[in-house]
Amino acid sequence: MQTEITDADVFEAIRRGYTDLADASDEEILDYFEAVDGASLQGHIGNIKGILFEQEYVKQLQETGVDAQLFEETNHPESDIAIYDEDCEMIEELQLKATQNPSYIDETLQELPEDITVVTTSEVADRFGDEVVDSGISETLLEESISETINPISPFSVIGWCFGVFC
């Protein structure tokens, strides 16, 4: 189940993950990332991607009637999402990994307790069978959504990219 990711979703993830931008306007966030050099921008995109992935997966679960909640802190140990039953008791914890790197998933599976379910982006889920859950969300969609929001491409750079003029 692929989801649509809006600019508002990306800005929400940024505000959740960057305490200094928690109260920033969209324009202030754009200004912040405009000042970041290209090499550092990839690191920021990776950070935002994980947070956005968590948000979008929680939305998917909630749309199906599952009581899923993000933990308050973005660096909660071992898990990212809690699933609750009708009595508001936590019944499951999920660890989400937005990656195309299977070795990263292997490491996670080895390190986590067996009672925590690993949920991945669609690109790697097939490689692991029943060991992980396919979120139905692609890493490509996450990265493109973030890049298009915080680093929009001008028509000139798209034309240049298509013809190999710009790198």
Describe the model.
It is a single chain. With 167 residues, the protein is an alpha/beta fold. It has one domain (7-162). Helix content is 48%, strand content 14%. The chain has 7 helices and 5 strands; from the N terminus they run αααβββαβαβαα. The protein has helices at residues 7-17, 26-34, 38-63, 102-111, 122-125, 139-150, 155-162, and strands at residues 67-70, 81-84, 90-97, 116-120, 132-134. Strands 1-2-3-4-5 form a 5-stranded mixed β-sheet. Helix 1 (7-17) crosses helix 3 (38-63) and helix 3 packs across helix 6 (139-150). The protein is globular. The model is unreliable at 154-167 (pLDDT under 50).
Features:
alpha/beta, 7 helices, 48% helix, 5 strands, 167 residues, single chain, globular, 5-stranded mixed β-sheet
Task: Give helix % range.
Answer: 40-55%
SSE-based structural type: alpha/beta
Query: Looking across the biggest beta sheet, what order are the strands in?
Result: 1-2-3-4-5
Q: Are there runs of 5+ residues with pLDDT below 50, and where?
A: 154-167
Classify the beta-strand content into a percent band.
5-15%
SSE diagram, text form:
Blueprint: H1 7-17, H2 26-34, H3 38-63, E1 67-70, E2 81-84, E3 90-97, H4 102-111, E4 116-120, H5 122-125, E5 132-134, H6 139-150, H7 155-162
Parallel strand pairs: 3-4, 4-5
Antiparallel strand pairs: 1-2, 2-3
Provide a quick synopsis of the model.
The chain is built from seven helices and five strands, in the order αααβββαβαβαα. By secondary structure, the chain is an alpha/beta fold.
